[in-house]
Amino acid sequence: MSSWENNVRKVVPYTPGEQPKEKNIIKLNTNENPYPPSPAAKAALEAFDSDDMRLYPAPDAAELVDAIAETYRVKPEQVFVGVGSDDVISMAFMTFFNSDKPILFPDITYSFYDVWAEVYGIPYKRIPLTADFRINAGDYSQPNGGIIFPNPNAPTGVLESTEMIESVIKANPDSVVIIDEAYIDFGGTSVLPLIEKYENLLVVQTFSKSRNMAGMRIGFAFGSKKLIKYMNDVKFSVNSYTMNRVTIKCGAAAVRDGEYFRATCAKIIGTRENAKKRLSQLGFTFPDSMSNFIFAKHKTASAKTIFEELKKRKIFVRYWNKPIICDYLRITIGTDNDMQALYDALEEILKEAAK
Ligand SMILES: *Cc1c(COP(=O)(O)O)cnc(C)c1O
């Protein structure tokens, strides 16, 4: 190795789900929303004056922060925004996880957490889920430098109660606790109200799933004024202008359109509940999902085979060749038509596999 390479920060990057270039694929592999964004976002995009591209955006993204604050009935000082929740969580790691003690997160969870811990040199410890993929609150009552988990968890889709989460926060007044609510709008209850009670709680959400705008990259977080101030201090020390002008306009318009948001979430929840029935009939088992995906295992056929066979039929789902989860497929909830195509393909594949 050349000598300059000895001083390179070497990391194993996060592997996102595939984004095939081909069209006419049924894409159930990255938990995107199958419906278009709010018409209000489209209108904001069309009204955007390209002359404004000349000018820097507002560093505080106030228009977007205010729209989020009004929608969620909190103060703008309690809102942080970033380039997707990935950016928000990465900033939170940099800001809050500075202890010699390990941060804690589940062993089966969003696979970006250990990547950030590695890149920032943060010690971490993975806490096993229970056999039925639950988070045991008691496991998080050990010395730590911070805590993070998604609710519902990914890729399991399992939702934990507000009471359980509050018990974790209560047991950890000396750490920042981050709850990643990327999927909370598909039937869960946000722990957002707890930010008034616990200064050390950060609640992270995103426009990528329930707000149909993964391509715009908007994430946001709620916390006490003090917590948000600390995050902004770090953010303004790294890059002041993370949110561009188009994103700010479209995001603000979209978040104010509550009616469209609730209607599309309800559609996805309806399709998901039907998917639970259909997948059971096809011989799959899965933890009960409260997200826009189902983490399913077939009683006889291997996940890898099903994954490959679906791909041949231009249906993409997510599969990880990793211990514990290699028997499972994570299937994003698409439109009713997407799902019908999936059930038809599965029927064919399973019949073939049973021969
Ligand atoms: C999708 C996802 C995110 C990140 O989404 P962004 O597109 O960066 O907002 C964060 N956490 C979990 C658990 C996710 O599934």
Describe the 3D structure.
36% of the residues lie in helices and 14% in strands. The chain is built from ten helices and 13 strands. The strands form four sheets. It has a five-stranded mixed sheet with strand order 2-8-7-6-5, sandwiched between helices. The protein has a four-stranded antiparallel sheet with strand order 9-10-13-12, with helices on one face. A two-stranded parallel sheet has the order 1-11. Helix 1 runs antiparallel to helix 7 (245-256) and helix 2 (62-72) packs parallel to helix 7. The chain is globular, with a radius of gyration of 21 Å. It binds pyridoxal-5'-phosphate. Pyridoxal-5'-phosphate is lined by residues 31, 84-86, 110, 150, 154, 180, 182, 206, 208, 214, 219.
Fraction of residues in H or I helices? 25-40%
**Tally of DSSP β-strands:** 13
Helix/sheet category: alpha/beta
Which runs of at least 5 residues are low in confidence (pLDDT < 50)?
Answer: none
CATH class of the largest domain: Alpha Beta
Q: Helical segment tally?
A: 10
The tally of domains stands at 2
Spatial separation of the terminal alpha carbons: 52 Å
- CATH T-level fold name of the largest domain: Aspartate Aminotransferase, domain 2
As a whole number of angstroms, the C-alpha radius of gyration is: 21 Å
> Biggest β-sheet, characterized?
5 strands, mixed
Q: Could you tell me the mean pLDDT?
A: 97
Q: What are the distinct ligands in this entry?
A: pyridoxal-5'-phosphate
Order of helices and strands: EHHEHEHEEHEEEHHHEEHEEEH
Overall geometric form: globular
CATH superfamily of the largest domain: Type I PLP-dependent aspartate aminotransferase-like (Major domain)
